[in-house]
């Protein structure tokens, strides 16, 4: 999966140790991908839709609120 490859690349190539990766998902990730992300140390957060409508900005804000770091990068 694209997400799995992206996380693998970050884990393999980053020389900075103090970062976290959070995946905000819609609850539709395949079990194999969930296991793969868990094995890569990804913290998963289930997107909580408001009013049964998807809102990308809200999804990103939920991820940002869960982040513990000083800087954010959205991929």
**Helix and strand pattern:** HEHEH
β-strand amount = 5-15%
Looking at how many chains there are and whether they match, the oligomeric state comes to: single chain
Gyration radius, rounded: 13 Å
Lateral arrangement of strands in the main beta sheet:
1-2
Q: How much is the average pLDDT?
A: 94
Number of strands: 2
Low-confidence stretches: none
Helical content class: 40-55%
Number of helices: 3
Task: Note the main sheet.
Answer: 2 strands, parallel
For the termini, the CA-CA separation is 14 Å
Overall geometry comes to globular
Structural class: alpha+beta
Describe the protein.
The model has no long low-confidence stretch (mean pLDDT 94). This protein is globular. It has a two-stranded parallel ribbon. By secondary structure, it is of the alpha+beta class. The protein contains three helices and two strands.
Give the structure's gist in a few sentences.
The chain is α+β, with helices and mostly antiparallel strands. 43% of the residues lie in helices and 11% in strands.
Note the main attributes of this structure.
2 strands, 3 helices, 75 residues, alpha+beta
Lay out the secondary structure.
Elements: H1 2-13, E1 22-25, H2 31-39, E2 43-46, H3 56-66
Parallel strand pairs: 1-2
